[in-house]
């Protein structure tokens, strides 16, 4: 009986958390699926002596409100207690915002104290109840998979593995099923029910073409945009020595009269004569990307950590529905455009333009990325900085193309960061400390609590709310003996030595107001004075030596 009572109390907390996260409630079957996804085992009905999930929740009157309907169905909703009323209020506010373009506001109200208020027993963050979300790259892969043809739902796993060499990682991002993950992309992917073959996955922009075909689950190829590159990376540049980049013979696609050129314009030129192509007027030559607007102090934001050099040098993406779509649309549009040989040839960069600081784009594994040339390595290679992802990488010169002016509008998405209030115990971060930090960040959405900017670098706390207890990364590094926690931020030595963002990306300001559109719709609210004062105190914290 004692063990059963203890199990029941734990189960009540888990059920309340899942129901609070579900704004519209869950059916008993959905609750079973959510529990399996979160705990990786079924509800312990037999251990508690229950015959069904409905019978179990009836014994939780202080946790679950059961609504019955005339069709015999039941909806389960949470009853908030004193510790979860704040979360319930946030969910209710989010529900109201959904009816008035809430998709533009993805950050919840910040009504929680600093992560350091109670290090040993941190309070649960409002972000613990957030809605699962797929990263931009995974969304792009799904759209890429469906761009050539619709796909049956039952064949998705095999097709995804065949195309990308790994299984579709929907559970990794908090989804209980493939269908649930696909429904999170309902604005771009439609699930068409078919009695004979099963559910069919279709890109919404091609839906009309598919609905007209009842028997053949395939949209007309002529209606599909040519997203597949005309050439592969391997053939795009000959990598054997001596290095020699040559255009690959392909058929130029019809992109409209404004891009057409006479096919016989050079037919009478001598074979050995090579012409230096004119630089297109919309090619970016002397402009820079701007940075994202600075985040307010003490605001909470969802983040993905994209690149880690150490706990004092890493880059993040802000998890915002609109920013994710903006970057995703940019990637698809660039791939669509530059995959045509006619366009690609027009934007080839002459050697005179391949210089440090030049903003351009590079093709890697069929995708195009905005990059800034950091240094010229050799006659064939350059090192570039990926403005939207934060890392440096050596690429072939012949993979580079001028960036079209249109692609300047979206600010650089990678934000240089350091973990707030920590310094390495040994003076520099050990490989073990960096590895631990990378593992904490790996492939998951985290909550970032903004502290301040120091020399253009964002110092923030990071918290993983996907576990039973919130995990604050500065506490983990301290408890493992890798870091000292202090009450101030030490300027990152690594970023002092090299900060490509500071070198090549302009701060967000009035000078770029005409170029960019308002797009970052994060709901930010500073904490009240009491919470902020409490946040500035860590138990046993002492000023760090600079």
From TrEMBL:
Residue ranges of domain HTH OST-type in the record: 7-80, 130-206
Alphabetically ordered keywords of this record: Cytoplasm, Developmental protein, Differentiation, Repeat, Spermatogenesis
Gene Ontology annotations for the cellular component aspect, listed alphabetically: cytoplasm
Highest rank taxon of the organism: Eukaryota
Record localization: Cytoplasm
Main subcellular location: cytoplasm
Domain Tudor per the UniProt entry, residue ranges: 353-410
InterPro entries: LOTUS-like (IPR041966), OST-HTH/LOTUS_dom (IPR025605), SNase_OB-fold_sf (IPR035437), Tudor (IPR002999), Tudor_domain_containing (IPR050621)
Keyword match Endoplasmic reticulum: no
Swiss-Prot/TrEMBL GO biological process terms: cell differentiation; spermatogenesis
UniProt-listed Gene3D superfamilies: 2.30.30.140, 2.40.50.90, LOTUS domain-like
Pfam families recorded: OST-HTH (PF12872), TUDOR (PF00567)
tRNA-binding listed as a keyword: no
Family affiliation: Belongs to the TDRD5 family.
The name this protein goes by in its record: Tudor domain-containing protein 5
Organism per entry: Xiphorhynchus elegans
């Amino acid at each position: 009986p004692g063990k059963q009572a203890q199990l029941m109390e734990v189960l009540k907390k888990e059920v309340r958390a899942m129901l609070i996260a579900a704004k519209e409630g869950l059916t008993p079957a959905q609750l079973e699926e959510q529990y399996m996804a979160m705990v990786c085992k079924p509800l312990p009905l037999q251990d508690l002596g229950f015959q069904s999930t409905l019978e179990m929740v009836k014994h939780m009157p202080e946790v679950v409100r059961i609504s019955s309907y005339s069709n015999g169905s039941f909806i389960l909703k949470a009853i908030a207690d004193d510790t979860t009323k704040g979360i319930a209020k946030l969910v209710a506010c989010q529900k109201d915002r959904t009816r008035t373009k809430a998709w533009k506001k993805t950050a919840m109200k910040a009504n929680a104290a600093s992560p350091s208020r109670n290090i040993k027993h941190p309070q649960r963050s409002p972000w613990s109840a957030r809605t699962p979300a797929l990263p931009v790259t995974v969304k792009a892969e799904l759209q890429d998979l469906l761009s050539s043809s619709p796909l049956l739902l039952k064949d998705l796993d095999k097709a995804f593995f065949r195309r990308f060499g790994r299984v579709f990682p929907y559970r990794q991002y908090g989804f209980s099923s493939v269908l649930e993950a696909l429904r999170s992309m309902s604005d771009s992917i439609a699930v068409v029910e078919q009695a004979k073959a099963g559910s069919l996955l279709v890109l919404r922009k091609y839906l009309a073409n598919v609905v007209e075909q009842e028997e053949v689950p395939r949209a007309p190829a002529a209606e599909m945009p040519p997203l597949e590159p005309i050439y592969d990376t391997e053939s795009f540049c000959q990598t054997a020595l001596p290095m020699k980049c040559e255009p690959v013979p392909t058929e130029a696609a019809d992109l409209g009269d404004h891009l057409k050129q006479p096919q016989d314009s050079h037919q009478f030129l001598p074979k050995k004569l090579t012409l230096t192509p004119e630089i297109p007027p919309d090619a970016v030559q002397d402009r820079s990307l701007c940075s994202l607007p600075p985040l307010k102090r003490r605001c909470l934001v969802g983040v993905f950590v994209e690149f880690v050099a150490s706990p004092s040098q890493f880059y993040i993406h802000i998890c915002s529905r609109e920013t994710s779509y903006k970057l995703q649309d940019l990637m698809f549009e660039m791939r669509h455009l530059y995959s045509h040989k006619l366009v690609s040839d027009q934007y080839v960069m002459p050697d005179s333009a391949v210089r440090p600081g030049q903003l351009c784009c590079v093709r890697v594994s069929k995708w195009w990325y905005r990059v800034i040339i950091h240094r010229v390595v050799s006659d064939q290679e350059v090192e570039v900085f990926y403005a939207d992802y934060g890392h440096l990488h050596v690429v072939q010169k012949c993979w580079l193309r001028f960036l079209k002016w249109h692609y300047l509008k979206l600010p650089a998405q990678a934000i240089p960061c350091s973990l707030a209030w920590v310094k390495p115990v040994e003076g520099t971060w050990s490989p073990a400390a960096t590895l631990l930090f990378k593992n904490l960040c790996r492939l998951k959405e985290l909550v970032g609590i903004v502290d301040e900017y120091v020399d253009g670098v964002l110092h923030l706390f990071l918290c993983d709310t996907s576990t039973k207890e919130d995990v604050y990364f500065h506490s983990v590094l301290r408890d493992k003996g890798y870091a000292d926690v202090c009450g101030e931020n030490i300027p990152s030595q690594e970023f002092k030595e090299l900060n490509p963002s500071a070198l090549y990306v302009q701060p967000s300001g009035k000078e770029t107001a005409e170029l960019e559109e308002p797009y970052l719709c994060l709901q930010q609210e500073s904490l009240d004075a009491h919470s902020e004062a409490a946040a500035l105190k860590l138990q046993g914290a002492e000023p760090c030596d600079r």
